[in-house]
Description:
The structure holds 2 protein chains of 2 kinds.
Chain A: H1 5-32, H2 37-47, H3 53-66, H4 73-85, H5 100-134, H6 146-154, H7 157-171, H8 192-229, H9 232-239, H10 244-282, H11 287-296, H12 300-328
Chain B: H1 6-16, H2 18-40, H3 72-108, H4 110-125, H5 128-138, H6 147-158, H7 160-174, H8 177-184, H9 189-225, H10 236-245, H11 248-251, H12 254-282
Helix pairs in contact in B: 1-2, 2-3, 2-12, 3-4, 3-6, 3-7, 3-9, 3-10, 4-7, 5-6, 6-9, 7-9, 8-9, 9-10, 9-12, 10-12
Amino acid sequence: MxxxxxxxxxxxxxxxxxxxxxxxxxxxxxxxxxxxxVQELINQKIASGGLTSEGAAEFRxxxxxxxxxDRPLWQQYLTYIWNTxxxxxxxxxxxxxxxxxxxxxxxxxxTLGFVGVSTILAFLIGTVVGALVGWSKTSKWFSWLMPxxxxxxxxxAFIIALVLIYFLAFKLxxxxxxxxxxxxxxxxxxxxxxxxxxxxxxILPGLSMLLVSxxxxxxGMRSMMxxxxxxxxxxxxxxxxxxxxxIFFRYALRNTLLPQVTSLAMSLGLIVSGSALVETMFSYPxxxxxxxxxxxxxxxxxxxxxxxxxxxxxxxxTLLVDLLxxxxxxxxxxxxx
Amino acid sequence: xxxxxGFRGFLNYIRRNPAFGGGLLLLLLLLLxxxxxxxxxxxxxxxxxxxxxxxxxxxxHPFGTDSVGRDLLPTLIYGTxxxxxxxxxxxxxxxxxxxxxxxxxxxxxxxxxxIVKFLVDVLMTIPSFLLLIxxxxxxxNPENMSxxxxxxxxxxxxxxxxxxxxxxxxxxMRERAFVMMAKLSGMSGMEIIIKELMPNLMPYLAISLAxxxxxxxxxxxxxxxxxxxxxxxxxxxxxxxxxxxxxAFLQGYWWWIIExxxxxxxxxxxxLLLSIGLDEFANPRTRRTV
Lengths: 337, 290
């Protein structure tokens, strides 16, 4: 299977456009907002007695020079874009010597862990449930699953998280209330005990994401299944006398999986923003909770840096799915597209 | 399709489309809760130190109180009102902009269409909630943000989905026979849009509106839960922010947790049912979703 080079180039161009837009928004928004961070810092210094009003003017000039604010706007913009594209996202304000990319590196694997596992599980469970409900030869009892699943899919994950924390963690004490691992345990990634503890802490955040996403997958799968069931090749397979299970798995399921993969790419953004709020609810040590902390502390480089990083992640993942698509479905060709 | 007359016809339709009726009823109940109930419960109770803190539900405080002395009944009444208002303003602006852009680009095409479509594609890839975080966290004095300011910020992203959906519908409808007929009879482009396309797209506009309002509510809820926006005036997001801030879980204040969850879940389920019902109205031939 080959993908025309022109298509790959077009998609790459789109990726660059998305990243460019995200970086431009990060640059423009603070400039448009009627506030002067340098003046705010100076006011803070004066208020705390660390600066006299005579020294303030000199301090302002040196700060403006340091941040390049004395240069024309277009130069500032180009510098910003250049730095962002090299992933030089600057320094955190509240944890000063720490760089934003370091903070991202510290937290991102926690998020990838529970969000990745719960998304894959939700995709598999939701697809199977939707297929069983949509296939008319399965038990009617399956269709009773749909209303509750649909209801769960409408409610945001962090609201589900509140309920889970209250009943499963606080009332039943079956799971920890918060955090990514116990405070009493030695943080050692090679010890089984620590890994089990991490898994134990990840279950509730993962379950919140899982409950919310299953509904979407099964709804999509069900309607696809209904469409496919009416297709001629299914009738033909039945006429040939093939076994029901073979028709279900080899004929129907295979053909309905592809739109599901497209929706997976489309919903990555929702999954990422949903997980940020879920992490905040659990004070989970992932990137979303770090974003929440940065918002509380008005640590702008960290806010903009994490948002940009998430946009990059989603855009790249979407691109990968798009490029993988023809491998999954030989019917798709990108000629002329 | 056979249509009844007036209210009886409406009831007959609801019987065939229960999701629509259920969603409408649930939304109506929420609106009643947010408006009529407010006539009997003064707003003063929705602020800190209004009453005794940490009270479980009782005859005096049917919904209980939180740990700084807000009475949760008025907090939820006025909070629902605030959050729904934000969502509706943002949703209406989003639908308005989306309708204009969708019709202009879908019907007339051209360079403008290319630019808008590209912008929409880019903004569909960037999660709107992340954009909202960037924008809303940069606003000066977010703690004094008014309903309108919050709604305006949300409407910066709420036009994207409607534009996309309406443009697609207009594109498919532009080639239909009745539009051709209108063109042949000498109607201008604007006339065709208003007299021919608009009425046929009404159900789709309603679906887009429900989606945009839903998105506005979700966005404001998420932002406030993260602590962006007005955390003093009662709203549903504010309630979630403070119950987390004061660790309502560790103290076991079940009423403080469960009540806003029920109201929020009711809002989103109402919009889900409405959009399912409207979808069935728009495409009566497709199979029921739920």
